[in-house]
């Protein structure tokens, strides 16, 4: 039976002539049919970027063979490559604290079949959302955090995530700063949602800051978590118009819609392997 | 012949019961018909705000009498009032440097009859846009600025603006910092357009800053000019989606559309007396 | 103990001078403090519209007295009035079929305390979403519909809604046409969400129609249900950019986000008594 | 001296494996460096689409040779190809009637160097905008149209356009229906701006229609002109929020901003050869 799988390749390397031809030659020579190809040059950085999807239907290599067979090509062009398959669903851990809007939004999308991922666990520093997790039948792990136990608890979380073979951590309104050990374990694989239009209003209470400044538009930003708080590569942003009628409580309420939609969209691109990180910025091949 | 004029009253004062009834009583008792009324309370500040338009068709007071007749009411409630009439067109001075997009946009709107203002003069620190001004038959005044002559030239500008009875100054991409003397002369009557989504990217080269940070949305902000650069009350903001495909030059090009539309909209509200400034924030009664 | 209740009055009537003064006089004379007032004239229709909120804190009339005491005023000006109180939460029935996105969105908002309503029941023509209802502990009523039993089932639904003292019906992706009897029972109190930017793409399969036409933007529309399918007064609309990359399945997926957000926003305004219907159009006092 | 020219190739053909490799092989074999490549498959139509830009810096073929040398490839895969060069600026004719907003917007963009085209002439059925044309030094041709002379005048226009080697006609608020002869002469090279969100409100007076229906959002659509009025392939659309406060005159005023921005954006993509027409729909490779 022919495979219905789809392979996705994300590449970046120094730019030079012939790169597209070389890579597509590899696909063609093994009878792959390219479904989608987007390529971009950053002239200033002399950098080449490409995202490529091909059908495995008649492909003459097995999934497991491809990476090693691509090595000579990668070495020749100093390529950084990431190869994934639609058949291998990503395993996602959701981290939450007390607010339910991002959590329910992701759980509903998952139940509707919109998010092609496994959701084996929810982590929280509070018990508040345990009933929400239980309603959807997803194991809920409570890791209470204090100044004293923070490092230790993070080690326990990492152990759990490894044991559950988690690919990606989604901070769905998790109100704790992520430690260096976890960031190192999941480089460009921890998504956060920040409730402002970064880089405006970094840090705490962005809606209060926005209200004080009297902005006419509020925003939300999803980014990968790095060691610099609120400074990681931005994946997606969106905004909403507000007015003098809106008090801080209105901004908080309106902002929830931004937050859940922006996080869901960023995660959609992430799980479809449409995001490539390069020097603290992202390319999103939409 | 009955007047077809429309009076507009902007009010703010400490909140207390009966304010709307008192003010509308004044209008009713002189046979004015209210066309539009918007009222807002800032509970935290205990502040009352109202904008009121009424038809002068059967009004029993002359335009000139109204302000003094409102005084007892104003004193009783400690009201700050601003009274204007549609029949008295505002006189606007446009300040430009080298970029033409905001200038042409405002001139075309004016020629199409969209902006009900007089445009008696254009001021610039460069000669570049003199032909543009001349095409539309508007006197162009060149005030070259150097470190040495800046204060002196600003005094000359102020004299010109006074002589021409200018109400409002529009900085339509005027690339000079406005001095304190001019700000004092035109409080909340100098509009600027800043090419970022304030408070993100204050200061110079915001599009370069936006590119470096890798934001997915760029913006523009129109605000009243105060002594704190880029910190004045925001009137209007808008944004636009960008991607990794967009280089700095693209951001600059795309941003021009934002800038001209945001400035024109802010000016539209300003000339219709729809903006009320309170403690470094605006209320826009749209 | 003084009341913390808030009264809201929606009014429309033929325009004439003195209306605002008369109505605010009624509030003032009973020691009410107006919190928010928006007034609008439709000059072409000679129609006057007003929305008014006042604090009941020191008001000298009981909630039950107000309506009758307003009658002389209403008669004098031929006013249509609607009076509501924040203390009386609306009772909402959610109607669904098989899709879960609007349902979960509203349930999550309700649980988060964002929607100040009672949700005593969910109605469906299918069993599909019973587990969703049960997760949130809301009674689920299954009314299977066939050509033969449609009228009869609708009578049974109406009886249930009356028994449960339902104020407003929300069609949260209910894929059945509502009959005349129910519309007559709930005039301007049945909200629907249509998955297109009305009046484009009325009727069935709007996303397929949008795909065929090659539009670059898709939309969703929430409106009150009237006897003319898809022709009722529009409350809210929103849109989203799409491209040639998006197939029908993508439009359906993306559209779900529009649908849930547009319906939730329309419902927010409805439950806050911010929507006034006049001649098949709405005024939304935002 | 090496060329700084850039070649752009737009291709569509039946899908089959190896197409990208074949085309990029042609570029590589002549030392071209690909700058930008976007490829798309329409699985339902089994159609392949690609846009490709390459640098001519070291390319071993002259501009004039390329098309014929591509023929074997095109025949082999039944490719429809369009080849253009950045060095050959398109020659654009602007058609206007009485409204100035799209005209001034395009003239200002051109003067600012934003639109890399030649503007050798403006055509109008009225004299109204002659002064606007003359201000910018562009020849203005007046073709008054009556029922009797319409066909004849259109022939005269076509002759003028041919004589001036016009590539593309832009209907910048030209209030006449274009005849079949001209459409045949400029297939997918006449851009129109329609003042509604098509397919809503086709035909005359769309803002009046929008007002009557009570929509909460208005739009504008730029499309290629075909024999079916308002039914041609859509290039770009945008929308704007309106409210019950907006009368028809406001919709017209607000709509002007949409119209000029949507037309300018569609033209930008058209002149950069980013639009591919396939079966009454467009692919816009942004």
Briefly summarize what is shown.
The structure is a homotetramer of 286-residue chains. Chain A is of the alpha/beta class.
Global morphology of chain A: globular
Unreliable residue runs of chain A = none
* CATH homolog superfamily of the largest domain in chain A: Formyl transferase, N-terminal domain
Gap between N and C termini of chain A: 31 Å
Chain oligomer state:
homotetramer
Average of the residue pLDDT scores of chain A: 95
Give the tally of β-strands of chain A: 13
CATH class of the largest domain in chain A: Alpha Beta
The biggest beta sheet of chain A reads:
7 strands, mixed
Number of helices of chain A: 8
Strand and helix layout:
Four copies of one chain form a homotetramer.
Chain A: E1 6-14, H1 19-29, E2 33-42, E3 47-55, H2 63-77, E4 80-85, E5 90-96, H3 101-111, E6 117-124, H4 130-135, E7 140-142, H5 150-163, E8 168-171, H6 180-185, E9 190-194, H7 206-213, E10 217-224, E11 234-241, H8 248-271, E12 275-278, E13 281-284
Parallel strand pairs in A: 5-6, 5-8, 6-7, 8-9
Antiparallel strand pairs in A: 1-3, 1-4, 2-3, 9-10, 10-11, 12-13
Protein described:
Four copies of one chain form a homotetramer. The first copy, chain A, has 286 residues and is α/β, with parallel strands linked by helices. Chain A is globular and about 60 Å long. A seven-stranded mixed sheet of chain A has the order 7-6-5-8-9-10-11. In chain A, strands 2-3-1-4 form a four-stranded antiparallel sheet, covered by helices on one side. At the A-D interface, α1 and β2 of A face α1 and β2 of D. β2 of chain A pairs antiparallel with β2 of chain D.
